Amino acid sequence: MSEDHELEGRNTPVFERGTDGPKVIVAGVDGSDSSWRAAAYAAGLARRQRSLLALVYVQPIAMAGTAGLGVPMAEATSQIAEEIVAQVREAADRLGDDFALRWEFHTFSGDPFSGLAQAADDLRADAVVVGASEQAGHRIVGSLAVRLVKAARWPVTVVP
């Protein structure tokens, strides 16, 4: 028995995450060892799934109390972003065409949670991959990974 079901009033396709495998995988990178492990893991997923890997670096915003440090901090975080892109390009070149991988690099300003959440929403990510926090205080206050999981908007993988 076959029935045709038509959704009335829908003229435009609706975005649906993960229907045919992930299309976009977002990985947070900040230059730390755990973020590089997360990026490598996400790259493997993206390559196998033929997904786009979106590497995201969130540039911290200078705090009000450090007003005099705003320009130097912005320059430092821009330099970090440039170094991350250079390292990613170098790694992609080493892999060559045998391990073709589509990737993009994005920077956002703000705190890591807001930046990654905005990136994942803007890019319509099917998955978010982050490294485990290397800071002891995050075990008490809550890490970026925990905040992303609690947001419950995307599957989140935490790489140790």
TrEMBL record:
Top-rank lineage group of the source organism: Bacteria
Organism: Streptantibioticus parmotrematis
Protein name per the record: Universal stress protein
Segments forming domain UspA: 23-160
Family as reported in the entry's similarity comment: Belongs to the universal stress protein A family.
Stored Gene3D superfamilies: HUPs (3.40.50.620)
